[in-house]
Amino acid sequence: MGWGLGDPPADYGSIMAVGLFVALMCICIIVGHLLEENRWTNESTTALLLGLGAGTVILFASSGKNSRLMVFSEDLFFIYLLPPIIFNAGFQVKKKQFFRNFMTITLFAVVGTLISFSIISLGAMGLISRLNIGSLELGDYLALGAIFSATDSVCTLQVLNQDETPFLYSLVFGEGVVNDATSVVLFNAIQNFDLGNFSSLKFLQFIGNFLYLFGASTFLGVASGLLSAYVIKKLYFGRHSTDREVAIMMLMAYLSYMLAELLDLSGILTVFFCGIVMSHYTWHSVTESSRVTTEHAFATLSFISETFLFLYVGMDALDIEKWKIVSETYSPMKSITLSSIILALVLVARAAFVFPLSYLSNLTKKTAGEKISIRQQVIIWWAGLMRGAVSIALAYNKFAKSGHTQLPSNAIMITSTIIIVLFSTIVFGLLTKPLIRLLIPARHLTREVSALSEPSSPKSFLEQLPGNGPETNLENAVSIRRPTSLRMLLASPTRSVHHYWRKFDNAFMRPVFGGRGFVPFVPGSPTESSVPLLAHGSEN
């Protein structure tokens, strides 16, 4: 009776759940800040442990009936939480490092994921089928291969520094993003593939569809980014309102993801490349205040989404419904054996492609500095051992309906996925900092920092002093050899391709879409007086 006149009736259960979740996120941020310098922990592990702790408290408070504030939803994950994380990854990436190592990244993320998928699927058919856990079909084993091929390298990236180890960071980061896209595309392709009528022609169609999804998703992301750059450059939103240009950047970035999903493409790839293009063109065409705003807004949304995800996964792990079905049907030893087999397959599958593909990649490199050392290979292998929310979301998609399942064989697959995610994130995550410090001692961290390292974009543009832009430093420090023959082009393709891309970009792309050196000047705007100077700052 305490409502005011005209107040709508409130769903106090929902309000309490959301309020408690927001409070947990605040606690997670505070604890993460206090443990920033801790040798073992990182923010993702902290959030996961807090989620587990909160789930345990709720479980006891409800007398063992419930441990979750919200039911795990694939729509919430794929539509609302994943896009800001992937977009910010593309928006903040050091593009020069990323594209310089693009062939190696693609080798790991596409070829490597396919190798991992094959080993896990075949291993699951050979080993899990002997456990007699239920009627699993060929599609289920292939789905397991795709589910556990999706890595989560957040823990490693939180330890590595983009400025201290740019080469290693770009490999781990790039592989992580493209790997997620590959795994999701592979999973969806398996779901839509008719396994009952398998033939060589069907297999070729499967490969063609896989390549089409990759190409079309990338093209859509680039096109969306260029469209946003052209619109913002031509319309000069900053003349009247910086809020509008910030809003249009955010909405067009999100629109690219939704268009990809509507067209049955990979939203992850689309929004990632949209972020890269928007940071290269669109970001330079907005006002100075909007640059600061968008930089921090995208990073903050990504951070909140990541924190939310790990809390979400931690609390959902204690869902009593799934564990009750599994405990009533299977012995604890069978559950442990299943999880151990899958984890062992993940370890073997990861090693089966990281070290051989690193060797192949090194064969194409001419200098020792460009090659992947054995220590770096171990870190790349380790970074891909952790599994996260993508694996859980795909497992729910395959083995559950609306977050619930009644089949014991499906329930044990979901609980095994949760066990592997928890174990790999907590145990491997806690060992990540000591391992990286052991393999890359502090005195060697600056070894990779050279004239070839460029400041990040647009993350550190405010740190650049006017007149000291990276392009000036880069061109003075590095003499880019122009290819005089096809043999030389093949021997050092990255620098040669980059040289010709820069010429094309400066001559055709930037005059149309904006970018460094083509920043719009709004007369009468006092904040724009320094824009021509800042234009020499962030280049990627």
From TrEMBL:
InterPro entries: Cation/H_exchanger_CPA1 (IPR018422), Cation/H_exchanger_TM (IPR006153), NaH_exchanger (IPR004709). Keywords: Antiport, Ion transport, Membrane, Potassium, Potassium transport, Sodium, Sodium transport, Transmembrane, Transmembrane helix, Transport. It comes from the Eukaryota. GO terms for molecular function: sodium:proton antiporter activity. Coiled coil: none annotated. Residues 41-436 form the Cation/H+ exchanger transmembrane domain. GO terms for biological process: potassium ion transport; regulation of pH. It catalyses: K(+)(in) + H(+)(out) = K(+)(out) + H(+)(in); Na(+)(in) + H(+)(out) = Na(+)(out) + H(+)(in). It is found in: Membrane. Belongs to the monovalent cation:proton antiporter 1 (CPA1) transporter (TC 2.A.36) family. This is Sodium/hydrogen exchanger. The gene is NHX2.
